[in-house]
Design goal:
With about 180 residues, the chain is mostly helical. Helices cover about 55% and strands about 10% of the residues. The strands form four sheets. It has a three-stranded antiparallel sheet. The chain has a two-stranded antiparallel sheet with strand order 4-7. It has a two-stranded antiparallel ribbon with strand order 5-6. Helix 1 runs antiparallel to helix 2. The longest helix has about 70 residues. About 15% of the residues are buried. The model has no long low-confidence stretch (mean pLDDT about 90).
Length: about 180
């Protein structure tokens, strides 16, 4: 097939074969090193992203929880607010904390005062005392905030969660 009659032809062939082998080995090593570094960089980026998302959610949830506690505190300190005052309070805190919808329900009437200005009650077929979030909050200890599992909201048809806390006046549950 190849006729190597001179020493220089043999030497050239061996040199080319050696260079080719070295290039293949160097490329294989380079490929695996690049693959390993890319994987480690991707893992590092993913870990950083998870850390950032966790911190963001902690801040987000903390702000929401602070707003819920502010509403609970205001109603506990002022249990005889009028309907209009309750609606203004709920609307103001909802807007400040950027809630889609905020509401407060009361034990004595079953009424639900919403930040969109609507008041739901038995005349509209609504009893806040039958809602899961209300029952969970009622069972929770004073000062505790419950968070529901994600669910499809009846009012918006969007996926949502509810933060809720019990409201007490003189150690008596009111809503």
């Amino acid at each position: 097939m190849f006729a190597f009659k001179s020493l220089s032809n043999k030497f050239t062939f061996i040199s080319c074969l050696l260079i080719f082998t070295i290039l293949v080995v160097v490329n294989i090593i380079s490929y695996y090193n690049t693959k390993d570094s890319t994987n480690s960089y991707l893992e590092e980026i993913q870990m950083k992203t998870m850390f950032d998302v966790t911190k963001f959610f902690e801040t987000y949830a903390g702000n929401k929880r602070s707003a819920i506690m502010a509403l609970q505190e205001q109603i506990s300190l002022n249990p005889n607010l009028s309907e209009d005052e309750i609606l203004v309070l709920v609307k103001t805190i909802a807007r400040t904390a950027n809630f889609e919808l905020m509401y407060v329900g009361f034990e004595h009437s079953g009424k639900n005062y919403q930040s969109d200005g609507e008041v739901l009650d038995l005349s509209k077929g609504y009893d806040t005392r039958n809602r899961g979030w209300y029952k969970e909050a009622k069972e929770a200890k004073k000062g505790t905030i419950i968070t529901t599992e994600p669910y499809i909201s009846a009012s918006t048809s969007q996926i949502g969660i509810t933060y809720a806390t019990p409201i007490y006046v003189d150690n008596k549950f009111i809503g």
